[in-house]
Write a structure and sequence with these properties.
By secondary structure, the chain is of the alpha+beta class. It contains 12 helices and 34 strands. It has 3 domains: 363 residues, TIM Barrel; 108 residues, Galactose-binding domain-like (Jelly Rolls); 120 residues, Sandwich (Jelly Rolls). The strands form 8 sheets. Strands 4-5-6-7-8-9-10-11 form an 8-stranded parallel β-barrel, surrounded by 6 helices. Helix 9 runs parallel beside helix 10. The chain binds 2-acetamido-2-deoxy-beta-D-glucopyranose (3 copies).
């Protein structure tokens, strides 16, 4: 009985395989004869929503799950992000916000089923599509998402840690996981290859741990070639498409590959990705309603992506490329810190118009029978204006002594010096022969953005997105120090340019001279504790660390401090920390995201600390505000 999926995928099955649950054991399977799921022998359809544990504070997981249930959903879909759990080879993290088993357990307590997308590649608009950065430093180069033996070795090792954790949560083992997705939109032709040996190997590896106790599936976009390449024999094929697509066409492609079984839209888009310097794309609630009704007329199961987007806390947001035939001609576009996505539950977990429309349609269709009260927006609080004090410049001696430096004749990439995220300061002494001259300085491969200093005086910025990686330098002829502060703005999350190493990847030249040797200082921007006890230095210049304190008033009524938004208007570009937690990049100078979401769970009653790492220009009055309104379209 447990092998119903495999057997039924091979031959068209008869209902004999169907578990009637007469033996009292839970079962979840595909009834190929009737194009539906059977859950404990009963016809079943899911309406699920995506929410990623790594984008929502653990303290708010239950609250968001309850709200999804109140909307009428019966399942939640989420990715597991390898880079979160194995940040360095063989070093694992499953605690706190990385504790997905607790997330699954909370879903179970709220009677929500789970659809898990285990990757190993997930895209998800995350840095390197959720793959760990350290794969990029392995020599010789690893071909990710292929049968490359080195890649498979690391995937297998990771899956041997991950999959045993999922086994007790499988539906047929008494848990709530009904489906497990392998890879992610693998059929997309941007990849330029279709390594079926790799995907069938993934299937066999997953099955070696979980057997047939959950339905394995794939998800690919609405295109027959993508569907064909992405599908894996004996793994259930599904499609994804937006409310503006043609569902007849999309389900038609799915049917060409998966002849029978329930129709599924695994990514029913409620909104879209957003980038720095570009307006956020709109998505109309009415289009969602219209497509829901059409999809429901097929008795299809579907998953809203996203139902609750959340936040790319820290430096986890990815980038993408537009156009171009090579990595160096494509336009690199970094994604926002917010992953609000204009989804039905907004970044702070509040219901929007889309939420109420979806809830109404599910109720009218009698899909949802629950009578859970509709959630109200949570209260927000303006904690007011914070006076920031400059503590130290990034180029000053104190932070330098705290951060490690490596030296090499040629500049090294972030990956080659074991740097995942943050900043690297590349420094060299210019060759001087006593004659002053104006010469072009060129960074031949810059990823992604650089601030250039000569003897610590700022000369300007260069950026890969803007294709400006050269500038004239007035060289005096004495031994001048050139400093280049390089920011990783997020590795590409998809497509053929996925191997997006960061830093300076080729020679830097001045006129016709190649510069070097280089010293490289690492600022991972993952800790601010060292700042707490530092005295404020005089004459601090940007880029610099700024510190301020603010008070969360005592309040006898509420369990926890209220959510708020950090408004860095007047500041230019940098990273903010609240009580040592990196709440993400800010860049109000280009927008559209102005404010950063600061969940109440990060705050404590009494004194709280705010640190800003401002890379360009601080606000003139050195103040920043906590406000009660989000501004994502500034
Ligand atoms: C949907 O399911 C209902 C109830 O089982 C059935 O009567 C109807 O024919 C199905 N519709 C489609 C398009 O499969
Ligand atoms: C939903 O249930 C109500 C009450 O049983 C019924 O009147 C209504 O027709 C049903 N709606 C649909 C779309 O089946
Ligand atoms: C000396 O330096 C200047 C400017 O850097 C340059 O124009 C000139 O060619 C250099 N001369 C030699 C001998 O390198």
């Amino acid at each position: 009985m447990r092998s119903a999926i495999l057997i039924s995928a091979i031959c068209s099955l008869t209902v004999d395989f169907v578990h009637t649950s007469a033996d009292g054991l839970p079962s979840f399977e595909i009834d190929y004869d009737n194009n539906r799921f059977l859950k404990d022998g009963q016809a079943f359809q899911y309406v699920s929503g995506s929410m990623h544990y790594f984008r929502v504070p653990r303290a708010d997981w239950r609250n968001r799950i309850q709200k999804m249930k109140a909307a009428g959903l019966n399942a939640i879909s989420f990715y597991i992000e390898w880079s979160t759990h194995e940040p360095e080879p063989g070093i694992y993290n499953f605690r706190g916000n990385a504790d997905f088993e607790y997330f699954i357990q909370l879903m179970r307590e709220e009677e929500m089923l789970a659809l898990i997308r285990i990757g190993p590649f997930i895209q998800a608009e995350r840095d390197f599509g959720g793959l760990p950065y350290w794969l990029l430093k392995i020599k010789p180069r690893v071909n990710v998402r292929t049968s490359d033996p080195t890649f498979k070795k690391y995937v297998k090792k990771w899956f041997s840690v991950l999959l045993p954790k999922l086994v007790p949560h499988l539906y047929e083992n008494g848990g709530n996981i009904i489906m497990i997705q392998i890879e992610n939109e693998y059929g997309h032709n941007e990849l330029g290859f279709c390594d079926k040996k790799y995907t069938t190997w993934l299937r066999d590896t997953v099955q070696s741990f979980i057997g047939y106790r959950a339905i394995l599936y794939t998800t690919d976009e609405c295109d027959i070639n993508y569907q064909r390449c992405g599908s894996i024999p004996k793994v259930y094929t599904t499609v994804d498409f937006s409310p503006l697509s043609d569902e007849v066409e999309c389900f038609g492609y799915m049917r060409q590959v998966e002849k029978r079984g329930p129709l599924i839209n695994s990514e029913f888009y409620t909104g879209w990705i957003a980038f720095w310097g570009q307006p956020r794309p709109p998505r109309n609630a009415q289009d969602i309603v219209t497509m829901m009704k059409r999809v429901m007329a097929y008795n299809a199961s579907f998953n809203f992506l996203m139902f609750h987007g959340g936040t790319n806390f820290g430096l986890t947001s990815g980038g993408t490329f537009v156009g171009g035939s090579s990595l160096d001609t494509a336009v690199y576009m970094p994604q926002l810190t917010t992953y609000d996505f204009t989804s039905p539950l907004d970044e702070a977990g509040d219901p929007t118009e889309k939420y109420f429309e979806i809830q109404r349609v599910l109720r009218e269709a009698n899909f949802s029978k629950n009578t859970i009260p509709t959630p109200k927006p949570s209260l927000k609080y303006s904690y007011g204006t914070v006076n920031m004090l400059p503590v130290t410049g990034l180029l000053d001696q104190v932070p330098r002594n705290l951060f490690t430096t490596v030296t090499n004749q040629k500049p090294l990439s972030f990956e080659d010096i074991d740097m995942n995220q943050g900043l690297v300061l590349y420094e060299t002494v210019l060759p001087g022969n006593g004659t002053a001259a104006r010469l072009p300085l060129t960074i031949n491969l810059l990823r992604d953005r650089a601030i250039i200093f000569l003897d610590h005086a700022k000369l300007g910025t260069m950026s890969r997105s803007g294709f400006n990686t050269t500038m004239d330098l007035l060289v005096t002829g004495s031994k001048q120090k050139l400093s280049i502060l390089v920011e990783n703005q997020g590795r590409c999350s998809n497509g053929k340019f996925i191997e997006d190493r960061k830093g300076i990847l080729a020679d830097v030249t001045l006129g016709n001279q190649t510069l070097g040797p280089w010293s490289m200082t690492r600022y991972p921007l993952n800790d601010t504790s060292w700042l707490t006890d530092m005295d404020v230095l005089p004459d601090v210049r940007t880029p610099a660390f700024y510190r301020g304190v603010f008070v969360v008033p005592e309040d006898g009524v509420r369990e926890k401090p209220l959510d708020t938004f950090l408004d860095p208007s007047g500041w230019t570009k940098g990273v903010a920390f609240v009580n040592g937690f990196n709440v993400g990049r800010y860049w109000p100078a280009v927008g559209p995201q102005i404010t950063l979401y600061v969940p109440g769970a990060l705050l404590v009653r009494g004194l709280n600390t705010l640190v800003l790492v401002e890379l360009e220009e601080a606000a003139e009055d050195l103040t920043v505000k906590f406000v009660d309104k989000h501004r994502l379209d500034g």
